[in-house]
Amino acid sequence: MEKRPETRVPADIPVRIWGMDADGKPFFQSALAGSLSNDGAQLTNLHHCLKIGDIIGIQYAEKKARFKVVWSNPSSIPRTNKAGVQILPDQTTPWGDITKENKRKLVKVGSEKRRFIRHKVNFPMVISFEDTRRPHMQCSATDIGGRGCYVETFSPLSIETDIIITFWLDSDKIKTSAVVRTSDPGVGMGIEFTALENDIQLRLQEYLEKIDKGFSKAATEGA
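-> structure tokens emitted (223 positions)
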């Protein structure tokens, strides 16, 4: 039976990493680890391009472990390389307390809680700020679900920026607090809805599923 993918924690944490880069040169730097699980993480803000298959060290707080680079995404923009890492079998995940706490919260909410699948649809929304002097951002999410979305933009906001998301569900105007969880310069940003009530999450998810099915039906009929 295929192993079920482990739940990922969307938070980004500061880490120290070291090893050999793709050019065979030693490095030691600070970075961010996100999409956390007991098996691995995604590293961002890398100054160096990493080589798939290489082993690197990662430290979070006082804990260290060795990881294998499983994918690498070099960037032409300085210090914005990314990589995915997987922990070696004989190691203990440095951020185990974070993933354990996330699992505890999920169990507390209930094992029957519905999983919100992301839909790749064009979904208009407005991003605004508590500081009303800042201009609003008219944009569209390209990947969205009941708990968050991804907005493509050349100028994404910084990670942990608090924002306000406004969108429409049929004739209802919905407004919720949110926070930027990932920021990819020149590409876009990942956003988590932090105050969207559960019934609204369910309504949004059902609305997105209808849109997605409508696109699929149109594509089939036009083939």
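The longest strand covers residues 172-184.
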